[in-house]
Amino acid sequence: MFPRRLVWVFLAVCFMCLFNLEYLANIFGKEPEVIFNRFLINTPGCRVRVLAHPKKPVPFVEPIHVMGCSRPQLISPLYEDDNNYLKASNIEEDLQCKCWRMERQDDRSNKYLQERQFSLSRDENEPIQVECGHQMYRIQCRNNENVVKYNDVIFFIPPPFEKEKTPRPFEKKPESLSVMILGIDSLSQMHFERNFPHLTSFLDYVPHTFFLGYSRVGLDAYENVVPLLSGLRSDELEQRCLSANKSTYDKCGLLWEKFKDAGYSTIYGEDTAKGIFTDERAGFRKQPTDFYLHPVMLEMDKHTRYSIDASELIHCSGGRQFFDVLNDFIDKLSFYMQTAPFFSLFWHSQGVKDYYHYARRLDVDYVKRLRRLLEMDILDNTLVLLMSDYGLRSGKYRLTYSGMREESQPFLVAIYPDWLKAKYPFAMDNFKQNAHNLVTAFDLHATLKDVMDLNLLQNQHVENRTDILRGYPPKKVPRGVSLFLPLPLKRNCDSAGIPSHYCPCTDLTEIPTDDGIVLRTARFLIASINQIIGPHQKCQQLRLYKVMLAYFVDLGESSFVYELRLRVSTIPGDGLFEGTARLTDTFHLTGPITRVNEYRSQSFCVNETSIKMYCYCPN
Question: Is the Cβ–Cβ distance between 561 and 553 less than 8 Å?
Fold first, then answer.
């Protein structure tokens, strides 16, 4: 028996040690990056652990400086009494202006139709009438010293039923539900929770479902949106509908074509000219949707844009950011959304995919967007998918363990009208239950196909389709399953079409970076990169500098597969790459090798997007 005094001394020492350890941990230590025994998904086929939120602001990520467009918005479109006008404001000196009316030629160019000139004075200016209907204009104004003072693109989308002073009520078919996809690039579930507190609060006032198991299936936005629009991987789509000379996507049977055939208006807009189908890709020969923002963004990108950040990644035209132009496009179309069923895809990428703190600036904008839809009663007949393609793919936060895991867990929340639950209880019960299973863009494609025929959501149809689904052998279950049906509980990444490198169901165990098998795997990754860039003679071959991190990939007790995930540093160029290799008698990649640090102008000598992240161009 220890003397009482020694016991108290021992307890005091323990307390001091604990206090000092906590103090040191707060300053230097790592916060726990996963919360053990807590899972986002916990099914027989997949367990996804909850990641811990940083308790404090991320110290190594600099706050983004408040940025705004530096030039004034001197001219804005005005629609009044069935006519289009250019309305001038904030004119501080006399200006001579040129105005070019244009129309889309293809996804690479616009055709100029007419040029006119007009003057603006510092005194009051009358609105300038221009052609009626859907129009697009580029305007440039110079002062008396021939200095350009205004350069912008203006577009008009007059409301439907122009002769009527009040919009018609929603003329829906016997069974119709509109679709609005609001995509935000590079936003993980955790990043959404960190940066959208107001939007999260707004969701409490509308029926919604947050899909905790939504996972990326491809490298970039293109590879994650193509499955949504086609039900196919991007390589499958290209083999099916693109010729060897990389023709356009007109004959690919994308989802908006099916909605158009079903009597829906179709809409597509992005806040960049270098979009999902147009960034080093052929785009479309014919306009793909009834309303299409790309011609406006293309004209801005070619003639009127300027940058407001040091890295030249966030662009303005006139006094508006490109994101504001996308918002204006949605606002102009809201009157159409009130009058007829529609399918729409809007995608926002500028800023949010490049800066860790930029997402917080979007919170109020998206609340305003959804509140306007609510006030206009558009949400009464619309399924809204608020979603992303993946988490942040580069930057300092991406180099943390949480950043690495978040990259494969984009956010997805569905907003829908109350009457769906009342009219289709079995389908909507499945919809909500599937929030706790693995979900992919392949499933969203199947789900949206059901929206075109809501009769498929009747209880009897759901029961019959469920019986068919459960009758499939495990390896024959379709890759894409409608979320109105119950997803198999034994679903895993393989059956869901998720490459192992992106699989959120795996646990990672850190192992020594100097282990022999780790070094062999690292050399295999570098050899794989060099094979990719081999045909491009301007790209310098890479060499292994260091293995930064190595993980054993735990695929579950029943798996006899051995996989390693590595982060390697290469020279020249100081590239940081991650890849997952499966070890059998040889090495096999389980997904693309990804670059996790910025490369900016290092790849100036090549144009292909798929090569740029690997290529180091010598000076």
Answer: no
- The Cα 313–Cα 67 span in angstroms is 12
H-type helices in 176-246, by residue range? 189-195, 197-203, 221-230, 234-241
Contact predicate 46/505, CB 8 Å: yes
Where is average pLDDT lowest: 216-220, 442-446, 471-475?
471-475
8 A C-beta contact, residue 234 and residue 226: yes
pLDDT range class, residue 600, cuts 50, 70, 90: confident
**Cβ pair 229, 445 in contact under 8 A:** yes
Residue located via tokens 């009058």: 339
Per the structure block, which two tokens stand in for 130? 């221009």
State which H helix or E strand residue 88 sits in: strand 83-88
Closest CA to 456 of 468, 465, 445, 469: 465
CB 384 within 8 A of CB 347: no
The Cα–Cα gap between 397 and 186 comes to 13
Amino acid identity, position 34? V
Per-residue model confidence as pLDDT tens digits over 340-386: 999 999 999 999 998 999 999 999 999 999 999 999 999 999 999 99
Who's near 465: CB < 8 A, 6+ residues apart?
456, 482, 485
Q: What phi, psi does 486 have (nearest 5°)? A: -75, 120
Phi then psi for residue 600, to 5 deg, are 45, -115
Which residue is listed with tokens 């006399």?
A: 94
Range 442-455 average pLDDT: 98
- Among residues 218, 188, 209, 252, which one has the least CA distance to residue 447? 209
Res 424: pLDDT: 98
DSSP-derived 3-state class of residue 238: helix
**CA dihedral sign of residues 569, 410, 178, 444:** positive
CB 570 within 8 A of CB 522: no
Number of H helices, E strands in the chain: 17, 25
Query: In 273-417, which residue ranges form alpha helices assigned H by DSSP?
Result: 294-299, 322-337, 363-375, 401-406
Token reading at 602: 């290092």
- Over the stretch 366-378, which tens digit does the pLDDT of each residue have? 999 999 999 999 9
Task: Quote the strand ranges of 108-236, DSSP E.
Answer: 109-120, 128-130, 135-142, 148-156, 178-184, 208-210
The helix/strand/coil state of 153 is strand
Nearest to 275 by CA among 236, 222, 227: 222
Give the separation between CA 50 and CA 449, rounded to whole angstroms: 32
269/171 Cα distance (integer angstroms): 24
Contact 199, 367 (CB under 8 A): yes
> Rg of the chain's alpha carbons, rounded to an integer?
27
Nearest-10 Cα torsion for 36, 37, 41, 46: 90
Q: Do residues 389 and 408 touch, judged by C-beta distance below 8 A? A: no
Structural domains of the chain sorted by starting position, each given as residue range(s) with its CATH number in brackets: 71-227+237-422 (3.40.720), 507-612 (3.10.450.10)
Q: Across-strand partners of 78? A: 85
Which residues have C-beta within 8 Å of that of residue 140, sequence separation ≥ 6?
97, 98, 148, 150, 151
Q: Looking up tokens 């689904």, which residue turns up?
A: 469
Point out which residues pair with 51 in neighbouring strands.
Answer: 34
For residue 245, the model assigns a pLDDT of 60
- The number of residues in the chain equals 619
Distance CA 611, CA 592 (A): 12
pLDDT at 173 (0 to 100):
54
pTM of the model: 0.90
